[in-house]
Structures are given as C-alpha cells and as structure tokens.
Amino acid sequence: MSAPSPQEQIASYVNAAACANTKQARGDVFKLVARALDLPSVEYVTIMEVDDVRRYRDSMTAKGYAPGTIAQRLTLLKMFFKYQIAMGWRDVRNPADPLLVKPPRVQTVSGQPWLTRDQVSALVRTCGGTTAKDKRDRAIILTTFTHGLRVSEVAAMKCSTRLAPTWRQPVGPGATPGICGVRAAADVPGGVRGAALPTATCWR
Fold this sequence. Notes:
The protein is mostly helical. It has 2 domains: 81 residues, DNA polymerase, domain 1 (Orthogonal Bundle); 87 residues, no CATH class.
C-alpha cells in the first residue's frame, strides 16, 4: 500500500495529538522548518533527510536561538519522523535521531525545580483579597498547581474548559523532574515534594 500524500501525513500526525496545545505545537513545527530552510511548502518536511535536519539545526544556531529551543524543535521533528516510521511511510532510519544530528547541549536548571506546598500557599496568600483580580490570580495559581499545567495551557483556558480527571498523573518518589504529571504532595504517597513549576511540566 502506498503512503498517503504529504498533506494527509501531516494531518494524520497533527490530529493524532490528544490535546489542542499539542496539536498546535505539532502543526507549528512544519511551518517553522519550511520557513527556516526556505522550502516551497510544508509538505517538503515529510521527505527530509539527515542533511536537511542538520541544516535546520545549523540555521537555528546561526540565528542565535537558545539551545533549549533548538533541542525542543529537533525533538518535535524527530517525533514526526517516528510517527512516519510507525505508520510505514518511511524506512526505519529517523533523520532527526540524536545519533545522526547532535542536538546542542542544554544547561540544566540549578536549584530546586519544584514548588513546595508552603511556597504555593505563600503565593496564594499574596492574592488573598476579595477583588476580582485576587480571585482570578488565586484560581490561576491553584489550577496550575493542582493539574500541573503549563503557563500556555492556563492562558488558553476558557470559562467552559473542563479539566478531565484523566489528566491527573501522579508521580511518585524517584521520578525524574521535568517528566509530565501532577506533583502535588497530596497526589504522592507520603506527601513527597510539591508541584512542578509550570515550565517544567510536559504532557505525553
């Protein structure tokens, strides 16, 4: 069976994402790559090879992008190629494999990448008033803490948004900081640690 058209491959990959923010990130990567490499259209991303990925990495480096940004975008590209391989649309070699295209070294964040319950309580106390602004800020802090949301996810929420219980993914002792999930102490046996900073949280 022949592979679907490039447009269909992209649509399939984007629509396979579980949430709107992930769909947005997946769709954006094609535009970013096409713009950086001056490709005629985003469809050309579907047939990129190792040399093309290296050119994309090098173009971001030349433009002064932060190592974390470059690494993140290379990961998004690698995920798409992995999807192509899984669907049988590409051979088994992933052109964005870190062994073939070395990503930049990302400096780890020093210090504690967590908010403790006491720190969250202190934040809540700063907006303990009765004004609409205080209530809004309190809701943002508690929602971010309870559900482990990114700042962008909170900003995209509407009054009609409902956070499904399945989003809550407790992480127990020994988990690696930066992996997705809720890290509220109430969710972890024995109350281990607090919540992850919004910027350190990701969804799978």
